[in-house]
């Protein structure tokens, strides 16, 4: 069975409560339970942290063993050379996802340190962005 992991960065633990007009009203746990049941031919783990170093540690931990990483580095997408370098350093392909379309938001969200080293980028489809990324790894 293929091993995938969804890695979520800062503030995404507040999904469902946080700016629901942008990010929707479903909690990530509710969504995660649904996708795990729906895509039962693959193993899908979930990790969330608000700390940059913990996200880098997790990428190192899974990045030479798992079949795919689905990464929403959230605000660190736009600031973190370290997470960008970690994505480059590992062997497992990383699909970058965002819930919102970062290109129709503030200018500072238009740059990503992840994209140059990602297998691909999916953004703007709400939580469905994660599902599209999972489908890529099936
Ligand atoms: C986000 C977009 C980022 O700009 C923002 O900082 C987030 C969430 C998204 O999924 O749309 O926290 O990554």
Tag the structure with descriptive keywords.
single chain, 138 residues, alpha/beta, Rossmann fold, five-stranded parallel β-sheet, 32% helix, 20% strand, binds 1,3,4-trihydroxy-5-OXO-cyclohexanecarboxylic acid
Short description:
With about 140 residues, the chain is an alpha/beta fold. It has five helices and five strands, in the order E-H-H-E-H-E-H-E-E-H. The chain has one domain: Rossmann fold (3-Layer(aba) Sandwich).
Q: Evaluate the radius of gyration.
A: 14 Å
Low-confidence stretches: none
Question: What is the rounded distance between the termini?
Answer: 10 Å
CATH architecture tag: 3-Layer(aba) Sandwich
Strand order of the largest sheet: 2-1-3-4-5
What percent of residues are in strands? 15-25%
Number of domains: 1
CATH class value: Alpha Beta
How much helicity do the residues have? 25-40%
Give the biggest beta sheet. 5 strands, parallel
Attached small molecules:
1,3,4-trihydroxy-5-OXO-cyclohexanecarboxylic acid
